[in-house]
Amino acid sequence: MTSLQVDKHAGDEAGGTSQEGYERGLGSRQVQMIAIGGAIGVGLFMGAGANIAKAGPSIILMYALAGVIIFFIMRALGELLLYRPVSGSFAEYAREFLGPFFGFVTGWTYWLMWVVTGMAELTAAAIYMHFWFPEIPQWVSALVFLVVLFGVNLISVKIFGEVEFWFSMVKVTAIIGMIVIGLGVLTLGFSDAGDTAAVSNLWAHDGIFPNGIGSSLMTLQGVMFAYLAVELVGVTAGESENPEKTLPKAINTLPWRIIIFYVGALLVILSVVKWTEFSAGESPFVHAFDKIGIPLAAGIVNFVVLTAALSSCNSGMYSTGRMLRDLASNGEAPQAFGRLNARRTPAFGITVSVALMGIGVVLNYIVPEKAFGYVVSVATAAGIWTWMMILVSHIRYRREVDAGRLSASSFPAPGGARFSWVALIFLIGVTGMIGYDAEARVSLYVAAFWGVALAIGWAVLKKRNPQLTERTREYADASK
Question: What predicted TM-score, i.e. pTM, was given to this entire model?
Fold first, then answer.
């Protein structure tokens, strides 16, 4: 056990707080539901409509393929988490195994990902509100949701965990209900869609790849966005009551969540309604149940997808505050971000992040029809960087373990570093697809600008504090 790990356990024994000073207020049921909720977001409920229109039934295969890669990433993360569970997990591992600069870049990029994702979720939530209140401007709804969720995150981690638990419960219950009703339509033939609903809809309209395999592969960038937030479990490590038990359980159930909530739900929906009826800007879930004609069903589903968007935005506010505090504790962000309020929440970091999420409100005012697409592409690029850092850190960690320089984790990833290499190559391929797509390419321009800004920021920090470059040496000494 390293000295850093000894400090962690000492902090735990000192009255229910982690080494970082957080309250360990997230119980097992909350961590499980946060993990489940992270796999059900606006990328599925909103983004799937555009992806179905582009790829047809083959979109199911794209979600399944991406799901396999996500599982590889999460098992790599799980091994690192049980090696050393800390709240700033991704940045900390990059800092330890790749150097302080990569920890700095990863922490700030993950923060950016959640700020931008928060904008996307606010945009989606505002669009869903149009279902009931078309006269309310999109930006007004986005602003109201932003303020309410901000209040929830300032109270305490327990309140955040409880709110997220019930958000996730609504999503899980609703999707299972939708699958059951859809299967009823297929097998019993009831409802307005009963006459045309059939499993053959998966291949009867120009085949499984109606627009070609290339067009299907190009949807992977949008599909990967749907999986953003599965890694949120890593951020909860510093505030989980028993991370050694809750984190492996949450990660190991990921394949079932993907099979049920993504593959299963899309199989049923595309069997009940042929793929040619779906379009971008509309939730396929709402459209499917409107087609079925069940009274109030479309309104109920719209409420569920609204919940999914708010859930993800809620998680984003939680993540940004923790990541800014981790950066501050390492001298890589203003020290004001490192302070906790009386309820042990990083209130200042959350406040600044929420203020920047307000840019999403402005986008909804200026370009409401394009706001979602813009923020999705930027968030996906930031998320891919984070996943890459997890994988590279895992590869380096396994090298250290194999050489006998670090102790093995109690939750080793199957296949060692081999699957991490597979996932890394896949993510590089998706990045290439983003560059090929004219609309999504804007995210790479933003990434380039962001990279230059971070490089300048790091140069200034290093000049002011030369000790920043000593962090890797500290980890090396602690592991001996």
Answer: 0.84
Cα(226)–Cα(300) distance, rounded to whole angstroms?
Answer: 21
Cα–Cα distance, 172 to 412 (Å, whole number) = 29
User: Quick one: pLDDT band at residue 275, thresholds 50, 70, 90?
Assistant: very high
Q: Which of 286, 297, 292, 356 is nearest to 321 (CA)?
A: 356
The first and second tokens of residue 50, run together, are 């555009």
Distance, CA of 199 to CA of 337 (rounded, Å): 53
Q: CB atoms < 10 A from the CB of 214, how many? A: 10
Place of tokens 């909804």: 364
Straight-line distance from the first to the last Cα atom of the chain, in angstroms, rounded to the nearest whole number: 9
Output Rg (C-alpha) for the chain, integer angstroms: 22
Inter-residue contact 123 to 364 (CB < 8 Å): yes
For residue 28, the tally of other CB atoms under 10 A from its CB is 14
Cβ 49 vs Cβ 280: under 8 Å = yes
Give phi and psi for 85, each to the nearest 5. Answer: -80, 110
State the Cα–Cα distance between residues 77 and 241, nearest whole angstrom.
19
- pLDDT (tens digit per residue) in 79-128: 998 898 776 678 889 999 999 999 999 999 989 888 887 877 787 788 88
Alpha-carbon distance values, 363 to 41, 87, 308 (Å): 21, 31, 21
Strand partners, 240: 26
Residue 206: Cβ within 10 Å count: 12
Q: What is the mean pLDDT of the chain?
A: 81
**Is the Cα torsion angle 98, 101, 105, 107 positive or negative in sign?**
positive
Q: Which of 201, 218, 220, 250 is nearest to 26 (CA)?
A: 250
Token pair for residue 261? 């909530």
Distances (CA, A) of 420 to 391, 398, 423: 5, 10, 5
Question: Which residue(s) pair with 26 in the sheet?
Answer: 240
Kindly give the interhelix angle for 28-38 and 157-188, rounded to the nearest 10 degrees: 50
Asked if residues 356 and 366 have their Cβ atoms less than 8 Å apart, the reply is no
The tokens describing 40, both together, are 């059900």
Residue 361 CA to residue 149 CA, distance in Å, equals: 14
Confidence of residue 1 (pLDDT cuts 50, 70, 90): very low
